[in-house]
Amino acid sequence: MHNSTEKPSLLIASGNTIHTVIHDEYTNVGLIDYSLMSNYIIWNDFHTDSFFIEKLDKAKPSQFSNKKQLLKSEIRALGFAVDWIHDLVYWTNLYELTVEVAHLANMNETTILVKNADEPRAIAVCVQSSLLFWTDCSHQPKIESVFQDGTNRKVIVEKGLRYPFSLTIDQIESRIYWLDGMQSEIYACDFDGRHRSLIVHSPQFLSHANALGVFGDTVYWSDWNHNSITKVNKLQEASMLYQPIITLKAMLHDFKIVHSSKQPMSHNRCNSNQCSHLCLPHNESCYTCFCPPFHYISTNGFRCIAL
Fold this sequence. Notes:
Number of helices: 1
Radius of gyration: 19 Å
Number of strands: 27
Distance between the termini: 49 Å
CATH superfamily of the largest domain: TolB, C-terminal domain
Largest sheet: 4 strands, antiparallel
Strand order of the largest sheet: 3-4-5-6
Shape: globular
Order of helices and strands: EEEEEEEEEEEEEEEEEEHEEEEEEEEE
Number of domains: 2
């Protein structure tokens, strides 16, 4: 259930500015995500492929008081997602065709979670279920899922896809939503791919859509052509009223809906973990230890040893 007294706000990456929550100047802001619990915002610079972090709400305490560069690497991230409980960052790497993960405490110690991804793009995480989802925009498009530790990889959607460009999660309903750019359509399904439904079909309003969001009964998307964000009630199929809610002068790259129901509290599976390096949640109750490159895990499953 949503808190009726708490109104959602939008966190928007556009040109050289992050709007509505932070009003400082940035350069080439591409993707964006946040953690309400730890009060930080993460974004990437799409020209340098660098990740940055800073305080989300400047009126509240945070360990990230000043803007800080987390990672600079030629990773060409086309999507990234924050695990707000375990302070993990997941991203898709178009150059290496992988899905990767790192802890905020040491973003340079990245771990390849998924190999042989054909053309990984959008990515989203459901922390309560320890599930990670990503879209694949190759010649055989699909949507896949995996546990947050890289196990139990599955293709959950592969029929009727052309270009699943963007992805988001309804944490309350346990459903994923995706935007198919070539079909000008938004779909939704359960986490296992069942109960698929068409939410919006509109060549007029979705032909240049890129980022996607959902909150309650409302679906939001951004438009590259008009640099705007539009919303529609997903339950009013017969008479959909498309409502542009904001238009910007600069190109609108990404946005996130900021609300506590978008990042519900969950048990931290890595509390009191024994991992020497990276701890990743496996399911709702346990975790797996991972090692950085050029290390291997010891026989006890906790300690990383250099090669």
